[in-house]
Structures are given as C-alpha cells and as structure tokens.
Amino acid sequence: MSFTLEGRTGPWEIVVGLEVHAQVISKAKLFSGAATAFGAEPNSQVSFVDAAFPGMLPVINRECVAQAVRTGLGLAAEINLESRFDRKNYFYADLPAGYQISQYQMPIVGQGSVEIVLEDCSVRHIGVTRLHLEQDAGKSFHDRDPALSYIDLNRAGVALMEIVSEPDIRSPEEAGAYLRKLRSILRYLGTCDGNMDEGSMRADVNVSVRKAGESFRTRCEVKNVNSIRFVMHAIEAEARRQIEVWEDGGQVEQETRLYDPSRGITRSMRSKEDAHDYRYFPDPDLLPLVLDPAWVERLKSDLPELPDAKRSRFMRDYGIPAYDAGVLTVDQAVADYFEIVAKGRDARLASNWVTGNLFAAMNETGKSIDDAPVPATHLGQLLDLIADGTINGRIAKDVFEAMVESGEAPEAIVEARGLRQLTDTRAIDTAIAQVLDANADKVAEYKSGKEKLFGFFVGQAMKATGGKANPAAVNEALKRALS
Amino acid sequence: MALDPATVRRIAKLARIRVSDEEVARLQTELSGILGWIEQLNEVDVSGVAPLAGISHQRLPMREDEVTDGGRPDAILANAPARADHFFTVPKVVE
Amino acid sequence: MSLCDLSLAEVRDGLRRRDFTSVDITTACLDAIAELNPKLNAFVTVTGERALEQAAAADRRLAADEVAPLLGVPLAIKDLFCTAGVRTTAGSKILGPFVPPYESTVTANLLRDGAVFLGKANLDEFAMGSSNMTSAYGAVVNPWTRRGDNAQLVPGGSSGGSAAAVAARLAPGATATDTGGSIRQPASFCGIAGIKPTYGRCSRWGIVAFASSLDQAGPMGRTVRDCAIMLASMAGHDPKDSTSAEVPVPDFEAACERGVRGLRIGVPREYRSDAMAPEIEAMWQQGLTWLREQGATLVDVSLPHTKYALATYYIVAPAEASSNLARYDGVRFGLRREGADLQELYENTRAAGFGDEVRRRVLIGTYVLSAGYYDAYYLRAQKLRALILRDFTEAFTKVDALVTPTAPTAAFAMGEKMDDPVTMYLNDIFTVPANMAGIPGLSVPAGLDVSGLPLGLQVLGKPFDEETVFAVGGAIERSANFSTLPSLRAGALS
Q1: C1-494 maps to which CATH number?
Q2: Considering only Cβ atoms within 10 Å of each terminal Cβ, which end of chain A, N or C, has fewer?
Q3: A128/A182 same-domain check
C-alpha cells in the first residue's frame, strides 16, 4: 500500500491521476457518417464535416451516446441526463475545424469508481471523476518527408470517451491495475476494444510527488502514452525526475511532457508555446444533449455481467479462490470458456486446467482465447475422462498436448493411442511382481526400514504400465506385495 | 476597457493572425472602442439569470450509427493548396 | 415594360401560362446583369451558361406540364451559400478559388423546386458588415440615389449584392442570410422586401457560417408575396442541421392575403428614441395608422432589454465567428501563404486572407472567450440574451406581432460611417434583437425619406409564426403602395 521512491532526502510518495482516451466502438464517427475502421487508405474515411469544410455541420451519432452511457453505468457512475458539447479552440495541423467538439462543463457521465486488486490481493477503489465524449483528431506523419508533415484525417471525428480518474493512484502497479481493469470493463461492455497498440486506448498521465503527509505538489502531464507497461515506466521515470528537481532545490513546472520509451525518460513538449487558452464555449451548432431516462434504464438492463460481479459469482458458485476468479474474469471470453468447461464438473479442476495448461498452450501457440488451441467442449470432455477414471491425471496432460497438436477430441486420442487407464488388478499385480523381481536389492532395503523407496517402486510400476495404471490401485497393490 | 499592445498581440497570436506594429496601434484603438461601448452591459443586473447559449426549440436530434459518407479522398483533397498523394501537407511539425 | 420588371410571382405565373419561357426571362436577367453589374457590382460570379442550361431544362419540364413551385424562375444566390461546382467566396479572399463539392440545403431545395441560378451575389466579407463595403470583391452600389445628388450610396449589408440585384431588377428574387439584420437592413436601404425567418426554419447546412446561433437564411424579393413564395421552397427540416426545426412549412403565400383584422400589433416603446430621424418616426406612425385602419389593434409594449441587444450581439457573434473562422487555415482549402513553420503559415494565411472587419471581429471574439474574460463578457452576454428573449416571450403573450422601423436611417453614402466601427454597428440596432431571440422579422418598403430614399418597416413575429408576419407585411405593403423605382435598374435609360 505504501509505495515510495527513495530520494536523497528520504522516501517520496507518488500521486497519479489518469486521463484515458478510449475510442468508442461504433461504425460511424461521433458527428459524421464516415467510417471508423482502423488502417484505411489516407483520407478515405473522411466526410466534409470531418474535414471542416465551409458550412458543414455536426449531427451526433446515437450509438456513440449509448456507448458512453453504457460505460458510465459500467463504472457505477452517475449518468447526467442533460449534458452539453463545448468547443475547445486551438490550432493544430490535424485539427481541421480549429476546435475540438468536447464536453467541458457538463459531461455526460459524472463520478464513478473502479475496483482494483493488487498482487498482494489487497483491494483499492480508484475514483472516476467524469467521462465525457469528444472528437479524436487526425493523424500527422512526420517521417515521410524531410520538410513536411503529412496529414490524414481518417481518425478526425472518431468518438472518444475521455475517462478521468481522481488522483487516487499511488504506485505504478496501481496504475497498471487500474488500466487493466478499465480495459477489461470496456471490453466486457463492448464500448472500446482497448487495443493500445492501435491507439484505440491512450492515457495521459498526471504525476506529482510528495513527502508523506503533504498535500499535492505541482503535477506534470505525460501525454499520449500507448501501453500499460509504458504508463508504469513513465510514472516512475517522471516521479524520479521530479524528485531530483525538488531535491536539487528547484521547482517542478506544470507542463506537458512526452515519454520516450527508447530512453526511458520524459521530456518537455516543444509545441506548447502559447500557454493553452482553449476558449471553451458551448458549441452553437449543437443543442444540449438530453437523455430519456427510460432509454438509459433500457441500456442498463441490457448490460452484460461485469468483471466484479462475475468474479464474485465464480467464487460463490464455483467455490474457486479470489485470485483465480480474478484471473478468469479479466477477459469475458476466458470467463465464458471457463464456464463451459466447469459446467457440471469439478470447477476447481476446471479452473486449474484453464489458468494452467490452457494459458500455457495459448502462450506457446500465440493463439487467443477466441481462437483457443483447444475448444472448451474438448477440455470439458478431457475432464470427464479423468473423472470417470478412463485416464489418470498424468496421461491427461499428454492427451491435452496431443489435443493442442492435432485438434482432435480427447476420446479419439485416448483410443487411438491406447491410453486408457489400467484398472485390471491382475495386470497391475503382474507389473509389480516384475518390478519387485528386478529390484530385489531395493526390496531388501525397503524391508529393512528404508521406506522412502516406496515412491521408487510406484514410479517403476507406473513406468511398467506405460503410465496408464491407476495410481491409487498401484499404491494399494504395492502395499500388499511389500507387506 | 482599453487594451494594451501586449494584449492585442496576445489575442492576435491566439487567433493566428499576423499583425504589424502599425496594425497593433490601430487595432488597439478600434478594439478598445468596441469593448468600451460593450461595457454598457455592466449596468444590467444579471444575477440569477440562466445563460442562454442558443435558441433551441427541440432536443438534440441523433443520427443512426450507419456509414453514409467517406470513400472520396479525391474530393476531400480537391481544394487543398498543398498535398502529397492522398495526404494534406504542412511544414513539418515538431512535437 | 420588360420581363425584368415582373415580380417573382408574375414570372412564375407567366411561365406557367407560357406567356414567355424560362430562357426568355433568364436571358433578360443575364442581359440586365451584363449591362448593370459593372456599375452595381452586385454579382461576384455570373453563371450565365449554367443558368441558360437550367432554364432550357425548366422549359422542357414546363412544356411537359410539370408543376414545381419555382420552375424556371431565375434567382440570385448570396455568395455565402455553397453551390456545387461553382466558386463560393463568402466575400473573402481567404476562400481563394474554393469550389464546393456540395450544394447547400437551401439552394438544393430551390433547385429541387425548379429555380434557375443566375450567379453568386456579392456580400460583406463573411457576412460581417452593414454596408457591403467589407467585401474583398469590391463594394456594391445601391441602385438608388438621393434626389439631385449622384453620390454613390451603400446598399446595406451584408446581403448588399442580393438586395441591389433585386432592386435593380437583375433578378426577381435572391437568397440572403441574416445574422444581425443582413436581410432586413439592405432590404430597407434598397426599397425591397426581405424576411429573416425563425431560427431553425431554414437549414444552415452548406451556408458558410458566421455566427451559428444567429445565422438564418431568408429570401429577398420586390414584394412580400415573392418572399413568401421563395421561403416556402427554402424552408423545411434538414436532418443534417441539428438546429433545424422539425415543423411543417405552411402556405406562406396564402398568409400574405390574410389581412390584419383582429390582430394585436405591439409597438415597443424602447425603439423610440430622441435620436431617431423625424421622417423615420413619421413613417412608423404612418405604418401603424394603416394597420389600425385595416382593423388591427395597437398595443403599447415594453422590451426593456432591447437596447442592450446590439452590444450583446457584439460579444456573441464575434465569439462564435472567431471559432467558426478558425477552419480557414490554409491547409485543406482556400488561400495559403507559406511560412517557415506551421504557425507562421497560419498567421500569414489569415493575415493575408481576412479583411479589416473580419479581423476585428475575430480578435474581439477571441478576446471575450479568453481566460479571465469569459465570465465578464461571453457569459454575461448569454444572460442578457436570456433577458432579451424573455422580453419578447412576454410581449408575445399580449400581441400577435410587433412593428418597428427596420433601420435608424436610409441608405448612406459610401465612405460615411466608416470613422469607427461602432457607428457602423449602430445600423443594426433595430434588427439585432430578432436574431438574439430567434424570432422572424420582415422588412417591407413603406415610404421615402426627404431625399427620396426608401425606408422600410420591420414586422416581428412569434417563433414559427411567419404567417402572421406575412399577413402584417402584406397589409403594410397594400397601404404603402410603394411604387417608386431606383434610378439604376434594368430597362431604365442610364
């Protein structure tokens, strides 16, 4: 809980607030009918509205509003039935109108909260200050010409949700947990795909440091950090820089900075010359956004079960530990997969197989849960084969590997490879007799008190049956034979 | 309210309009004159009045989430004073 | 009498009766433009060839007995409306050679109804002005002159080109826009009719924006009926404009004949001032007398905040304009002046592209929105706007319409009122309140001043009650029987 960075003058706390820009999942843009798909040809997904041609006017996309409301509900936040769009005025190469339509004074979503669980299983609640809808800007390419920047407006006007947290975050780990949880919620809701590498989720990180017991010191904003790992690194790098400034007797200036992942440092942004005076005012092309309470209720009743609720249910209904339940519910597809496997079976065993073998196989094959290396129904069948004694747990691991390789159902593999568990006591007795005959010296040692050797005999007997013997039956038969 | 030259320059910078020194002097007089005339509004007691941003007779209408536009980069770029392929171009921006 | 002297209604009806063809009337207009535009500068762009093609197409449809509200009727289009494939300048250099790839909703509605476009009418730059002196394409000359004086007069603004074209009979009607009086004041100065409809009545889509919460398109014509006919085509709900009203378009033309019997006409006492020229006062009284004679009841009303409307306007309109005009940055269309870096490119482009008045307003608007001044200016203006609207709302509980002078003076000479911006702004003192409140306002020619220049009366109505406005305007028009003609006009000896 009390994460600190050590400076020359002693420990420093860090204080972090995050502004997450989450691209709304919608077919069309926030105020125009142009498409939002990623990776299209330059300026091919641009309407005259997006390019701010003379006389063009915005008309809001209902689905983008619905997505913001769903997200607000998912963050247990207040939904403001009346909100408003303001213009944020500034000149920038990829901002065609010279203003961004955003929500400044009256956002669509008010205060909410995100629960995070840390490595040590402690739970914290990070406050959400607000969520508002705004337009994304276009994209500038600086590497295509020595003297020019190239402007592509495909992204200009795509709907973003800006989700602002309270300055409640106290460590890089908490920031990471917050972002992962937020991403998980957004993905459950289907309101943002959370793909940080495609830029559909980006974070501005507000960082300050302080001595224990102090109120806030000056903060700096590290803009546009595009991975969770970089956010965690940027926080530490920026906090260390600030500590150095303070400890050298300097003043941290409130400013906008950029994180340079290759060098692991933050640097001041050069293009911030006029101290931002955004001249916000209500966009006269739009009227106040008034939501019908019944519509909001309908959106609420259609929300999916969210990660926290699912985690609690998994713990309650399946009797699995909090940590495992947390792991299983980060991703809705994983949770769904697990539920197929666990249904009517030993849920703890199912959980172990999903978080252990399945995740390992996904890592190895590079496949995602949507394209799982083993279908959930097959994994379920494998558990059934263990449960009814057709195979034992050791063989099951081999069968699983064969399932990953061949894509075949477990029954078929067991049959084809003759992996059925040996429960025939006569065959087991025969195998044991062979093992004891071949190791008469060890039998003598055992009988003279070296009881540790029992495990050796079990191993040899299992080996003699090709691993197929029921381990419990082998144990019993051995005890009989050695007594 | 009389504007000083620095304020005129600051506003012109915010509005991205280059102004010469002579223009600053002229604008200072003109803008101060307009703002001085506007100051008559201070005689009205507006306490408790809700601000009115626009005349609206209805709720904000909403569009369905359908792709109805785009797919014509040539038309988007047809009026561009400078371009390269299907990009607009500007002097290199350093962030 | 030439075809150019026909009113828009007469042109429409004559075409339907096949008295003449659309090519006949269009040719007559184009000839008149060729003759007079060098003197008037009413058109920035004349699209003669296109007009004749449209006219020929209209004639084929007329020959096939097709009926459309404006089939074959030639019009002038204020150069603030984007017209597909035809250069649109907004009276500014900054749009450069901009050719819109789209047609504004209002002009598209007119084309749908069969209209023929003669060309793009001159205007104050970005519709900012009351004299048409701020156009980057040169001043427009008022076709009227003072008796015994050849001094060139301004046509008013910002729709000066539209007004001059209609008054000089270069076109039977024109589109225009009105943000603070830009239809009504030039109508008054040029002796024609013009209506700014209710905010939301006409779509703003495709009209180069000046101040979005105030801008409204409307028609200019030589008669109230002509305005009613055009407005019926221009108006209508447009899903592309979020502020466009979803209300039906009534039969405006029929409303012109309704008369005023039983109507209660409000006379706002605050419009009266000692500074008002006696002849304006006299004309106002005359107009009110006519209405009483036709059966209306006159009611004294108070609009206590109306005197603050103009100063309020000069916060709200520049604030919105400063933002609306940020898109003219030399990147995607229009003028570009290179610079060492992007900021210099912006500053050079906008310094070269914007004229003095636009620059002033953009700077005022930037200032009143800037940090530390927002509350004192913009927020206060919004509150005053609420009070102005409240005044009108209360007045309209007592009366059906208000009647006032349109402008405090008749047309003035070029070069007059140019000493300081505020003197020019005062031209709009009677017209601006309607924009602040979003209500309809019509100017109708009602008389002449001592030097023989036209003066207009303004009729203000309830939101979306243009019908009553047309009824009152029609009644004034009948009594005034305004028949004096400007000295510069098609067919007149010059």
Answers
A1: 3.90.1300.10
A2: C
A3: yes
Strands lying side by side in the sheet with A139-141 = A139-141, A148-152, B87-91, B83-84
Joined tokens for residue A296: 């909001």
Distances from the Cα of A473 to the Cαs of A444, A458, C270, C398, in angstroms?
A: 23, 10, 107, 102
Tokens 């309470």 -> residue: A293
Q: How many domains does chain B have?
A: 1
Cα separation, C222 vs C6, in Å, equals 9
Scanning A318-377 for CB atoms below 8 A from B yields: none
pLDDT, tens digit, for every residue of C387-432?
A: 999 999 999 999 999 999 999 999 999 988 777 888 889 889 999 9
Q: What is the pTM of this model?
A: 0.93
**Could you tell me if A339 and A363 lie in one domain?**
yes
Q: Which residue of A has its CA nearest to C213?
A: A284
b/e for C438-456, b at 16 or more Cβ within 10 A? Answer: bbbbbbbbbbbbeeebbbb
Q: Which of A205, A74, A52, A58 is nearest to A131 (CA)?
A: A74
**Catalytic residue of the set C22, C78, C188, C443:** C78
Rounded-to-integer distance, Cα C432 and Cα C389, Å:
12
Q: What CATH number corresponds to the domain at position B9?
A: 1.10.20
Question: Is B94 in the A-facing interface, judged by CB distances under 8 Å?
Answer: yes
Domain that includes residue A182, residue range: 5-299
Does the beta-carbon distance from A47 to B70 stay under 8 Å?
yes
Please check whether residue B26 lies inside any domain of the structure: yes
- Tens of pLDDT, residue by residue over A30-88, are 999 999 998 899 999 999 999 999 999 999 999 999 999 999 999 999 999 999 999 99
